Amino acid sequence: MLWHKIKEILAEKLPESAYSLWINPLSAKENENSTLEVACPDTFFCTWVKEKYLGAIQESLHLLGQSDVRIVFKTKDGSSVSQSLLAAPTPNEPMRLPDIPKVKSSIRTLHPRFTFDEFIVGSCNIMAHSACTDIAMNDSTVGSCVYLKAGTGLGKSHLTHAVAHHIIGHKPGIRLNYLTAQQLTAEMVKNIKNNTMTHFKNKYHKQCDVLLIEDVHTLAGRLKTQSELSEALDILLENGKKIIFTSSMGPREIPDIDSGIRSRLSSGIITAINPPNLETRIKIIRRKALINCLDLNEEHILYLAENIKGDIRQVESTIISLKAQCSLMKAAPDFTMIKETLANIIGNSRQLSPVVIRDFIATQFKIDIAELQSKSRKQALAFPRQIAMYLSRKYTEMPLVDIGKAFNRDHSTVVHSIRVITDKRIRNTSIHRQVEFLEDKLEKKFL
Questions:
Q1: 134, 244, 342, 441: which has the fewest Cβ within 10 Å?
Q2: Is residue 252 domain-resident?
């Protein structure tokens, strides 16, 4: 059938969400006079498809060698779509998109790139990502409520924006309310002043399928907002609605908050987003560089990943700054440019200390810091530990006792390590070069 073939072509050309919402519900029949009669659910649907997708349908006909076929849009009750139907709706019944409820969603401005596709998943955030994905897809695996705890710039807003993007794009019939706790308070105060609290209650009690509230720790001390939110949460949870909270604190850490609201915040899964490890930071930097068309080699990416920790916004700032400099100077990025940019964004390199050197050596030998601090005497751990103590003595003025504390050792172990590495550097050329290589990297990075 001709229409079936057209739909197959459109399914390949159009985004899945657009195809599912606007093309899949259509049916069509071929008339004898080379006319394809497309049936739509209602007049507005016809008008929208005609305006947005008629060109794509005609292109499909051309590909099928049926360019002479004329398209006619009709509603399923047989009414043709005339120009008069394009007029504005009557005040009593405003036009709505198909399957969109009369009460529209309330959503804060969304970042266009904060989607699930752009979120880099690592061991630091895999649980949070999985929980938010389940909420977005209306999966019941994690339950109805998710609480995201994370510091600044670690991705909690990215995930909540991604949830909103997914719901808007794939399930437009779902009523979504997405706002910050401060916006919730301001909205409630406005309704109290206007004597319209009934509207406020209806919005959050009866006209909400998914509720996303960011920065719930700012509810501290706002007892009236806490009371209204508690009431709304009870109703939403009883009816199986989905809720996501974000905060820089855990529910038990928020001061000046009612025990009832604290209990409700803790009623679902609580998951933290931790600072990304080196592997995840490398993935993030590589992805950001690709998006911004910045040509960074693997050495540049590793250097940035080793120096930018915590706030991922610093990665974005660094990449954008490097891109701007490369464009202005018409040159590729080099280490001098990268170091200057990092100094402007994150400040000068940290002062060397036994802890900094310990962490550096752990990264170079690809072992955990906990292993360096363990009681294990395995050569694979003892040798890097001895080098770290040796370098700590060379590059810092710290007492031997303080150097030992960084490795859970006493000062006699530090003395022994320094003697071992000094002796091996003299007797073993390979070890001498290895230590020299580590010293060179350490100086380039921190001095």
A1: 441
A2: yes
Question: Are 341 and 381 members of one domain?
Answer: no
Q: pLDDT digits over 368-381, tens only?
A: 998 999 999 999 99
Domain span at residue 139 reads 106-273
Whether the model pTM is above 0.70 = no
Please indicate, yes or no, if residue 408 is contained in any of the structural domains: yes
Q: Give residue 232's Cα distance to chain centre.
A: 27
How far is C-alpha 41 from the chain's CA centre?
A: 37
What's the structural domain count of the chain?
Answer: 4
Letter for the amino acid at 207?
Answer: Q
Domain termination residue (choose one: 329, 346, 363): 346
pLDDT in tens, 202-235: 999 988 999 999 999 999 999 999 999 999 999 9
3-class state of residue 219 by DSSP: helix
Q: Would you give the DSSP letter of residue 21?
A: I
164 and 200: one domain?
yes
97 within domain boundaries: no
What CA–CA distance (Å, rounded) separates 189 from 441? 57
pLDDT score, position 110: 82
Distance CA 439, CA 447 (A): 11
CB 134 within 8 A of CB 62: no
Q: Taking phi first (over 0 means left), then psi (-120 to 50 degrees means alpha), and beta for anything else, what does residue 335 get?
A: alpha
C-alpha–C-alpha distance, residues 386 and 404, integer Å: 11
Could you tell me how far CA 419 lies from the centroid of its own chain? 49
Q: Which of 322, 177, 165, 294 is nearest to 241 (CA)?
A: 177
Which token pair is 6? Answer: 């057209």
Count of C-beta atoms within a 10 Å radius of residue 116: 17
Amino acid 119 reads F
**Residue written as token pair 């808007």:** 168
Q: Which of 213, 238, 273 is the last residue of a domain?
A: 273
Residue with tokens 């990264």: 363
